[in-house]
């Protein structure tokens, strides 16, 4: 197998997971590979395909990808062809004749092809030794991109009697089980490598000013290539119009554009003639652009599978890249509306559950990368990534002194007060209730900005030292350990560089 890898691809070693999957296929056992995007899934069925001889049938839902793959194989001296609906009839007939003569080693087909009787008859006459399912998650009802026609293919190819190789980058436990039972793949033939991508920095930003944030980001990264995903065509168009007004060079992609325009825009982006792409999720599948430095989601996607797949288009070259998720409550409502239109009740419930997980992602205080990975594989234990918003917000500032000041101020006021009263008194701002001005704690933290003080109050609330009832703050008895026993309190809010550390949350 190594010889094939070196001879046809020029690579020295197999990557993690490839070797095992290839061995299963060569032994005639069906296998499932869950490998990250860019992990080299094609080689997992191409190398055994070459080794087994005969024909390898590759089923792929992506027409755009077929041509690239066939071109690459042909360039490496391996006879390959594809059959899809966009092809001229004469061309398809010529390929079919070649197939019968055994001229090809690989045939790429779209699932829809199997609806035709004559195609199924053709297959029965060919020497098929391996059947590959690319983007195999599309077979599963539990997948985020379920394609019924793809699922139907399964029954039709199983009768061909060849082993199957299913590959995908995103499969939750349910999807994996579903693929396994459909394709009769045993547990010991499932190879799952970590889908962790160390070079990606995940950010979540609940800003109310998405437009400004995006424009500023692009201005600050003028030389970088990036994708901005929006949910609807209308939003893509609106953003594009706004960018035109601000003279930000960009291109767009969505399913409502004529095919030539889409192709042109895609090429401009892929060839680096245009560095910013604004698109719906119609853009990206099968596009191999390695230097995407950021992926910004202007809206909340429908689930974490879609999010990870789209965000994962950043940094394929291994260099540090950012994946930023902007969202608002309105986005959640839009997704709920889409889900409401789903006919099948079981699928509707499943989608609701997936959306719930997506929303939880925006709220978690845990490492974002860890949260994503655990969604797909709950057994994988991860160290905090050190790059995501939550890891960067790690509590590393000792606010014990500030805590003492705030708690004693609150105690001296003797009555529960709302946040802005406490903040004004401790900053020494003039105030209608003049009796507070005589407190020894009045103006005790005048050098701090209101925002920073609010951050400290958040931490005190979070740790339970302060109670908030009906918007009014009071000291909890446990605060004794801070005031009398010198208990240390750490926070991720910094008094000085507060603005810098949390810029992502507080854009002006
Ligand atoms: P995927 O389909 O998993 O996203 P591809 O099959 O397109 O990924 O492979 C991604 C890139 O990695 C391709 O350029 C491929 O040639 C390269 N690649 C695959 N396997 C190896 C390997 N063993 N060594 C080096 N490069 C590899
Ligand atoms: Zn992290």
Automatic annotation (TrEMBL):
- Top-rank taxon, per record: Bacteria
Task: Output the InterPro entries linked to this UniProt entry.
Answer: DEAD/DEAH_box_helicase_dom, DNA_helicase_ATP-dep_RecQ, DNA_helicase_ATP-dep_RecQ_bac, Helicase_ATP-bd, Helicase_C-like, HRDC-like_sf, HRDC_dom, HRDC_dom_sf
List, for all copies, the residue spans of the domain called Helicase C-terminal.
Answer: 209-358
- What EC number(s) is this enzyme filed under? 5.6.2.4
Q: Which reaction does it catalyse?
A: Couples ATP hydrolysis with the unwinding of duplex DNA by translocating in the 3'-5' direction
List this protein's GO terms for biological process.
Answer: DNA recombination; DNA repair; DNA replication; SOS response
Q: Which GO terms describe its molecular function?
A: 3'-5' DNA helicase activity; ATP binding; DNA binding; four-way junction helicase activity; hydrolase activity; metal ion binding
Task: Give the UniProt keywords, A-Z.
Answer: ATP-binding, DNA damage, DNA recombination, DNA repair, DNA-binding, Helicase, Hydrolase, Isomerase, Metal-binding, Nucleotide-binding, Zinc
Name the Gene3D superfamilies for this protein.
HRDC domain, P-loop containing nucleotide triphosphate hydrolases, Winged helix-like DNA-binding domain superfamily/Winged helix DNA-binding domain
Which CDD domains does the record match to this protein? DEXHc_RecQ, SF2_C_RecQ
Q: Which Pfam families has this protein been placed in?
A: DEAD, Helicase_C, HRDC, RecQ_Zn_bind, RQC
Q: GO CC: one term?
A: replisome
User: Helicase ATP-binding domain: which residues?
Assistant: 22-189
Record's keyword annotation contains Metal-binding: yes
What cofactor(s) does the depicted protein rely on? Zn(2+); Mg(2+)
Similarity annotation? Belongs to the helicase family. RecQ subfamily.
Checking NCBIfam families in the record gives:
recQ, recQ_fam
Query: What is this protein called in UniProt?
Result: DNA helicase RecQ
Q: Which gene encodes it?
A: recQ
